[in-house]
Amino acid sequence: MKVVIPGGSGQIGTLLAREFHAQGHEVVVLGRKPVAAPWRVARWDAETPGDWATELDGADAVINLAGRSVNCRYNAASRRDILDSRVHSTRAVGQAIARAARPPRVWLQSSTATLYAHRYDAANDETTGLVGGAEPDAPEAWRFSTAVAAAWERALNEADCPRTRKVALRSAMTMGPDRGGVFDVLLGLVRRGLGGTAGDGRQYVSWIHDRDFVRAVAWLIAHEEMAGPVNLAAPNPVPNAEFMRALREAWGIGFGLPAPGWLLEVGAFFLRTESELVLKSRRVVPGRMSAAGFVFDFPTWPEAARDLCRRWRERRGRGQEIALSGPRP
Fold first, then answer.
1. How many CA atoms lie within 13 A of 309 on its CB side?
2. Beta carbons within 8 Å of 272's beta carbon, 6+ residues apart
């Protein structure tokens, strides 16, 4: 099988490329800069069809992950880049598929669980979930994120490629032990005694173990009946207070300094990011995948956290762990 991954030079793209390559598939990553990798890397501009479009002709699957990181302050320039990088790259992929003599049979397009409303009362699945943006007390930055997600999926839906099945991956946070990922950042807080409750701790955290994420992507490629929006999230989201407590227990630390909402806002300002990434309640469940028979290897957070902590230690080694974190609290 030939798998093409536009925007695949980041953590998630590398995770997928590594797994497909290990299984013996032909992997091509499209990136703005050439990098050394065990698989082939081709250059693209993420805006217009070019020479890179030939890679899609005859491919079996395309997994488009392109889009500027949202880990920044939402000023005017950043907002424009966040929106344009997603919409333009999606349109370019769609145009390349439309022009292919042998278009790929499936196009998996990155989206986000941030599309759903901030809520505590019930979980959001693909059928009954509430799309965000209309919450009466939601900050304006949250509305922007929802609008970006909607525009992202609209660009996918508008692409004219009738011979290619399209799937919108409404992904929760992918938790893996690789350096610089979400789990690495959260564990860094725990290791330094800062991994307590964020805000009031009631906001739900939706997540997916990295191995389940890879399995789910492969499963979606194989299951031709799956098209349209699909939630990629473990079936048991938990409130932030419970999420952080389980992570501390998995690492073996009993205390974590809490961070009230006002402090998170101040910290987000100085770190040049947005508090939405921590304070918005993302209660998302994989309704369609569960109904279709997909079984998660890590359905609950405590067991996932234990596995991830074990793998994190194995990759760093005891000596490197001490050098990075200093004495444990």
1. 19
2. 72, 73
**Residues 292 and 225: beta-carbon distance below 8 Å:** yes
Tokens linked to 286: 């994989």
Segments forming the whole domain that contains residue 13: 2-325
- For 158-169, letters b (16+ CB in 10 Å) and e give ebebeebbbbbb
The 10 Å Cβ neighbour count of residue 70 is 18
Q: What is the mean pLDDT of each run of 10 residues along the chain (329 residues)?
A: 96 96 98 90 94 97 93 86 96 97 98 93 95 82 90 97 98 94 91 90 96 98 98 97 96 89 54 66 96 98 98 77 37
- SS (HEC) of 62-87: EEECCCCCCCCCCCHHHHHHHHHHHH
DSSP conformation class of 52? G
CATH of the domain at 276: 3.40.50.720
Number of domains observed in the structure of the chain? 1
Interhelix angle 76-99/140-158, nearest 10 degrees: 10
Distance from C-alpha of 256 to C-alpha of 248, rounded to nearest angstrom: 7
What lies within 8 Å, CB to CB, of 14 at 6+ separation is 8, 178
- Residue 97 to residue 56: CA distance in whole angstroms: 7
pTM for the structure as a whole: 0.91
